[in-house]
């Protein structure tokens, strides 16, 4: 049990740090898009830098892959990059105009809805976690938090 607790803390910490990076990435890439006056170019630069890092990680940890496709893998498993690209393009374009907090708050709202549906139905082969009253209450409270973050301060 102790190892499991350590793993949960470690995984939670790693994902918390990843979460910290999302608004930073949005601010940096939105700023780059504004400076360049070219959202697609800013997104391309971001993805190119990310690709370089991913390739370095791949080659140093696993070597050259023997195959890109494994028999029986559903074709839609290869579409994750489409969602990354959509996110990067939209956050680069929208965040400087709408505000980092507003943009990320709506991204978070979308993540809350999607994660609930994916976990409840076990889509894409992930472990299924049924939506129960406790989780639904937590989801409603998180959505309420999102609404509160978006509310304008009263004078």
UniProtKB/TrEMBL annotation:
Q: From the record, give the transmembrane residue ranges.
A: 6-28, 40-60, 75-96, 103-124, 136-151
Q: Does the keyword Electron transport apply?
A: no
What the entry lists under InterPro entries is as follows: YdcZ (IPR006750)
Keywords, A to Z?
Answer: Membrane, Transmembrane, Transmembrane helix
Q: Which domain of life is it from?
A: Bacteria
Provide a GO CC annotation, any one: plasma membrane
Official protein name in the record: DMT family transporter
> Which source organism does the UniProt entry give?
Pseudoalteromonas luteoviolacea CPMOR-1
